[in-house]
Design brief:
alpha+beta, 2 domains, signal, 26kDa_periplasmic_antigen
Length: about 240
């Protein structure tokens, strides 16, 4: 029995020693968040154009839809849009039913079919954007029309925002350290979160928005945000 007590005592001393070691290894630190933003005028846009046609038979609806979408694709190519910037993004054939207005036991009646074909278009010449939208509607596009502006390569601007965000985090950490009356030591960790917000609608004269034969479009600016999380040791 005494032997067991001796073993338990030794184990307790080992646990106390390990706990003291862990406590000693805990480093006091200051945690700060830094933020910065980069704004760029877009140099490209992505369009979502859809053609929907309805007919009594699926064949008729498909033929009408294909003819209209074929004209749209041909017009995009004629305006200089590369084949690599054209992509079918959605295609569907759906039956159309008429449901009884009262609570009768009559089943729904099939009255036709609806064919929908969507095209994603990357426009790299923004001066053509309004004209391309106008042309596509004239040739048969009757759904979609969603426009998103982007940048081909925003990496240089994001790098500048990243550096500014780190400086902002260091500045905040320095302010907290000064207020607390301590000195900063080594950086313990540094992590980043990046993202893109919706374009800022500011007036730009880049696009032919005033032309009477095109859809008025304003590109604005894209905003790229960088947030960094900083942990820096307190020098003791």
């Amino acid at each position: 029995m005494s032997r067991l007590l001796q073993i338990l005592a030794v184990c307790g001393l080992v646990l106390l020693f390990n706990a003291s070691q862990v406590k000693a290894e805990v480093t006091a630190a200051i945690h700060a968040t830094g933020q910065a933003e980069a704004r760029l005028a877009p140099d490209m846009a992505t369009l979502e154009l859809s053609v929907a046609r309805e007919a009594k038979t699926a064949r008729e609806a498909l033929d009408a839809n294909s003819a209209a979408m074929g004209r749209v694709i041909a017009a995009m190519r004629d305006q200089g849009v590369a084949d690599g910037d054209l992509q079918t993004s959605n295609f569907s054939i759906q039956p159309r039913y008429v449901y009884p207005s009262n609570r009768s036991e009559k089943p729904p009646q099939l009255v036709g079919y609806r064919v929908r074909n969507s095209l994603t278009v990357v426009v790299r010449d923004l001066d053509q954007l309004g004209a391309l939208l106008d042309k596509s509607v004239s040739l048969g596009v009757n759904e979609g029309g969603n426009v998103s502006f982007g940048n081909t390569d925003p990496s240089a601007a994001i790098d500048k925002a990243r550096a500014a965000a780190v400086k902002d985090a260091l500045r905040r950490a320095g302010t907290m350290a000064e207020a607390a009356g301590v000195k900063l030591g080594d950086i313990l960790s540094l992590s980043e979160q990046s993202g893109m917000s919706h374009p800022r609608p500011i007036p730009m004269a880049r696009m032919a928005a005033a032309e009477a034969d095109s859809v008025p479009m304003v590109a604005g600016e894209n905003s790229y945000q960088v947030t960094v999380q900083l942990s820096i040791a307190i020098d003791q």
